[in-house]
Design brief:
Blueprint lengths: L1 H25 L1 E2 L2 E13 L5 E11 L16 E3 L5 E5 L14 E2 L7 E2 L26 E11 L9 E11 L13 E9 L10 E2 L6 E3 L4 E3 L3 E2 L5 E6 L3 E3 L2 E2 L29 E2 L6 E3 L6 E14 L2 E17 L8 E5 L9 E4 L5 E8 L8 E7 L1 H5 L3 E5 L13 E6 L11 E9 L7 E10 L12 E3 L3 E5 L7 E7 L1 E5 L5 E6 L4 E9 L9 E8 L11 E6 L6 E19 L5 E19 L6 E9 L2 E9 L1
Parallel strand pairs: 1-4, 2-9, 12-21, 23-29, 30-36
Antiparallel strand pairs: 2-3, 2-21, 3-8, 4-6, 5-9, 7-8, 9-10, 10-21, 11-14, 13-19, 15-20, 16-17, 18-19, 20-21, 22-24, 24-27, 25-28, 26-27, 28-29, 31-34, 32-35, 33-34, 35-36, 37-38, 38-39, 38-40, 40-41
Length: 627
């Protein structure tokens, strides 16, 4: 009887084991590995409320396999079937509400390969899911891409903003700037505003992730983000996340804004080459790494869509990747130059008028001569491509003398008037050399502004006395010139600058007309300011205050008002907006002698305002600009 029981137990255990193996083979979901980073993106599917979501996971080849079938086969590998994915509401009406998860299958043709870019013949320790023998270079990083449909159509109609996320254990134990990387959960998310019409797509990152960098050498990195909808993008450093709203704990002095050792650490704002600088508009990240370390670099990208003249946040995505440094000897990363009008330049910002052609060359310049040549790759804003912009490679024989080894390309674009906007369009340019074992690389962004000046707002006194002299100004823009025309008076100084001084001689009125021409030679529309000229100070609006000064004008923060009053009057100073609303009032009693006071305008919106200073039956008004 005991023997029969033992046989039954063995048979049962064998059946259970085979059953578990079957479950394992059928459901090859990713549960645990050593993650070093991710990209997450989404695009609108053909069915309303559905999105095609793509998650790229980067695996440390010193850790365990990411897909259970590796080494061997990645077929059948998924994420989400084990509960690693989540859909949660973010709007107040659905904040924190879970709407389940989703399952994404692996894309075998773009998964299981090494992403550390070595020179020819170099090979990392990765086996690419068993498809090759390992090399010796470390770190080795494999990429796995998962993509599939995510259905958000059944969510409550008032729950617009949702997060889609992926979470699993654990980050790489090689990280030197986190307190407990081996035990830190890995979490990433994208935020979707599903109520946007038309449906909103996330940006696409076209530049390779920066993984291996040379210690002590200057780095310029850019995601090469392209928004398929033409939305504006902003960039910021973000934290490593353990879960939604839960950042990882860093080793002091490091943190989300100081993620690794750089020249001048922890002071991010030091002048280059020190500090850690991220341009919030272009996304350029510039720094000089110091020493040997492994750290996470997280860049959050926010999408902004202009709705009824106001920019609205419509989405957030992230790139979360580890940065390894190593000693590279004499090599330096290549530099990108522009060639406007056939002259090499470090200018990465261009202005062009609507309807005007803009052309220039770009060059990948390598500081090491000889065989270590540099090559170019690029990404172009989708709106430039859709509106006739081109960027084409220049054959070696057609490059300027002595520049044959440096890859070059030619850009040309004639933007239509409909392309005018205040924010720039971007070209993403990447230069890469052939140094061994880690090629040097740099990624730059080139900004292109398409605009013409608007009518400039004129600040100055509109009611004056004959033969008196007053100053008038408009907002200053670097590189702009101004054309002033005055009737009823004479321009004493100023000419083509942003301010003039006028002596008023005519009666009973005069006027000022000004027009701006920007740095690209685009001329804007003119502004007219009418002036009332009087012969005496008998009116309520003329020279009521001696030595009156209201400055600076325009101002961005503080406004100083000063004058002399010998009589000890009660005074009232007010500020009125363009709609005639009184937004500031200061009642002053028995002011005698010199008056001088600063007023803080930082809480008010940018625009044109009227300052009124009143005493008894007299008042004086002055137009100011808050910018």
């Amino acid at each position: 009887m005991k023997i029969n029981n033992m046989k039954f137990m063995k048979k049962s255990l064998l059946s259970l084991f085979l059953f578990l193996i079957g479950i394992f083979l059928v459901n090859q979901s990713v549960h645990a590995t050593h993650f070093i980073g991710d990209d997450i993106a989404y695009k609108c599917a053909t069915t309303a409320g559905h999105y095609t979501v793509t998650i790229k996971l980067y695996r440390d080849c010193q850790g365990i396999q990411l897909c259970p079938g590796c080494p061997g086969s990645i077929a059948g590998c998924t994420i989400g079937s084990g509960g690693e994915t989540s859909i949660k509401g973010l709007d107040p009406i659905c904040s924190g509400t879970s709407f389940g998860g989703f399952v994404l299958p692996v894309l075998p043709n773009v998964s299981g390969f090494d992403v550390v870019q070595l020179c020819a013949g170099g090979k990392s320790i990765c086996t690419n899911c068993g498809s090759r023998s390992p090399g010796t270079f470390s770190p080795g990083i494999e990429i796995y891409t998962f993509e599939g449909d995510v259905d958000l159509s059944a969510l409550p109609s008032s729950c617009c903003k949702v997060s889609i996320s992926y979470s699993s254990c654990c980050r790489s134990g090689a990280i030197t700037t986190l307190l407990n990387p081996n035990g830190d959960n890995f979490y990433t998310e994208a935020i979707i505003d599903r109520c946007q019409a038309p449906c909103n797509n996330s940006p696409v990152y076209t530049n390779e992730p920066i993984i291996a960098a040379c210690a002590g050498q200057d780095i310029v990195y850019n995601l090469g983000a392209i928004d398929p909808d033409g939305d504006s993008l902003s960039y910021a450093l973000g934290p490593c996340l353990l879960g939604q709203g839960s950042p990882a704990t860093y080793v002091s002095p490091y943190g989300p804004g100081v993620p690794f050792p750089f020249l001048g650490v922890p002071n991010t704002g030091l002048p280059l080459p020190a500090g850690l600088h991220i341009d919030p508009v272009s996304g350029d990240v510039k720094f000089r790494p110091q020493g040997i370390f492994v750290s996470d670099l997280v860049i959050e990208v926010t999408q902004w869509k202009k709705v009824s003249g106001v920019y609205v946040k419509v989405g957030v995505t992230r790139r979360d990747l580890q940065l390894y440094t190593t000693l590279c000897g004499s090599n330096s990363s290549p530099v990108v130059y522009t060639w406007p009008k056939g002259v090499r330049s470090s200018n990465y910002s261009f202005n062009v008028c609507p309807g005007q052609q803009l052309c220039f060359d770009v060059e990948a310049y390598d500081t090491l001569p000889g065989s270590d040549t540099a090559s170019l790759s690029w990404s172009i804003n989708s709106e430039i491509l859709q509106n006739g912009g081109t960027l084409t490679s220049i054959p070696a024989g057609q490059r300027p003398n002595g520049k044959g080894q440096n890859d070059m390309a030619h850009f040309c674009w004639t933007p239509a008037p409909s392309m005018m906007r205040s924010l720039p369009y971007y070209l993403g340019i990447r230069a890469k050399d052939k140094f061994c074992s880690i090629p040097g690389s740099s990624a730059y962004s080139i900004a292109i502004y398409v605009n013409k000046p608007g009518p400039p707002a004129i600040a100055g006194l509109q009611s004056v006395r004959q033969n008196d002299t007053f100053s008038y100004s408009v907002p200053y823009h670097p590189g702009s010139s101004f054309q002033w025309t005055v009737s009823g008076g004479t321009i004493i100084s100023g000419g083509s600058t942003d301010s003039i001084t006028v002596q008023w001689t005519g009666l009973p009125s005069g006027r000022i007309v000004v027009k701006e021409t920007n740095i690209a030679g685009c001329q804007g529309d003119s502004t007219l300011l009418n002036i009332s000229i009087n012969t005496t100070a008998g009116t309520n609006e003329i020279n009521a205050f001696k030595n009156l000064k209201v400055y600076p004008n325009p101002t961005s923060s503080l406004l100083n008002i000063s004058f002399d009053d010998a009589n000890g009057n009660d005074l009232r100073i007010s500020l009125t907006d363009a709609l005639g609303r009184e937004i500031m009032l200061d009642d002053l009693q028995k002011i005698k002698g010199a008056f001088n006071k600063n007023y803080d305008l930082t809480t008010f919106a940018k625009g044109i305002y009227i300052v009124k200073i009143m005493k008894q039956a007299k008042q004086q008004s002055l137009q100011i600009i808050l910018q």
